[in-house]
Amino acid sequence: MRTSYRYLQRPVPDQACGSRSTKARAGSGLWFAEALATFGLILTIFGTQRWKADMVPVTAGLYIASAYWFTASTSFANPAVTIARCITNTFAGIQPLHAPAFIVAQLLGALAATLFCWFMFAQVSEHANRRSGYKPVATPFSLGRGS
Q: What is the largest CA-CA distance in the chain?
């Protein structure tokens, strides 16, 4: 009983809680991979929201699981995840010194994806909704536009 309780105390056994990561993650290749991972995540979310909104959690989870394997950065794709990985000294961690560059790459990837999605999906959404009579809730693509 005491042994199993010991594992409930800490999320990663044999490591101190809040230990800083020592995994070095620097370089333009990793930053580009992180921007690409974030771009793909945003594209997946907006694309799924457009055609099958109830599947967004599934497709986002599948995308992150696959992007972990096809990107050099292991697809953090989220500033909150980047900060969390700074305080876990595991193979997927990141040194706190390298986190700001990852966060900037994520923000640039998210901005590029949002602009791309607006260009690709905005007109399609408006025409499809008008044809079907569907009145959507406000989305990033419909804000500020007259109906």
A: 64
Opening angle at CA 136, ends 40 and 54, nearest 5: 50
Cα 116 to Cα 1, 5, 31, 40: the distances in Å are: 54, 49, 20, 11
- At CA 101, angle to CA 37 and CA 82, rounded to 5? 60
pLDDT in tens, 114-131: 999 988 877 655 555 565
* CA–CA distance, 107 with 85 (Å, rounded to integer): 17
- pTM of the entire structure? 0.70
Q: What angle is formed at CA 92 by the lines to CA 98 and CA 10, rounded to 5 degrees?
A: 110
pLDDT tens sequence across 71-83: 887 888 888 888 8
Answer positive or negative: Cα dihedral of 60, 65, 68, 71: negative
End-to-end CA distance of the chain: 63
Count the residues in the chain. 147
Rounded CA separation 35/82 (Å): 13
The half-sphere exposure of 27 on its side-chain side, counting CA atoms within 13 A, is 7
Contacts of 2-9 spanning 24+ positions with Cβ under 8 A: none
